[in-house]
Amino acid sequence: MTQGFYHYLQQAWKKPDAKTLRERMIAWRKSPVFTKVEKPLRIDRARALGYKAKKGFVVVRVRVLRGGHRRPRPTTGRRGKRLHTRKNLKMSYQWIAEQRAARKFSNLEVLNSYLIGKDGIHYFYEVIMVDPERPEIKNDPSIKWIAKPENRGRVFRGLTSAAKKSRGL
């Protein structure tokens, strides 16, 4: 049986060309933490998560530092009972990246995100964001739900797929 173009793209991303990806990540490290990109790097993944090539959809590449999920020990200003640091942060790096992008672009709403690479220091995610005020979004039957006021701030309430996964749902 013959497969479509997106199938072969998906297979290619399972074993990416290490040299090309490494060169890209070197450039990404030098770029700002939040970078708007014209087109998604993994178009198959973006389309599967709801991205459309139309006005109102914005793709942002986010760089997140790895490590440091352990809470730091407080230095001063607490009694001994409150100095314990046995808890770890339960949020995934992907959820953290989505929240940071939502704070940076406060007029946009996070739809979804996916991993595009990681090196020894950083994770790199592409976050799909939607402008709920645009008429192209309000008139599109498949995405107009995001323009409703009850869906504002969904990433902070743990309603994106990465957040639901972190919450164990």
In summary, what is this structure?
The chain has 169 residues and is an alpha+beta fold. Helices cover 30% and strands 19% of the residues.
Write up what this structure looks like.
- This protein has 169 residues and is an alpha+beta fold.
- Helix content is 30%, strand content 19%.
- It has helices at 5-14, 18-30, 43-48, 93-104, 135-138, 161-166; strands at 34-37, 57-65, 109-118, 122-130.
- A 4-stranded antiparallel β-sheet has the order 1-2-4-3.
- 24% of the residues are buried.
3D shape? globular
- The helical percent reads 25-40%
Order of helices and strands: HHEHEHEEHH
The averaged pLDDT comes out at 91
As residue ranges, the low-confidence spans are none
The quaternary structure here is single chain
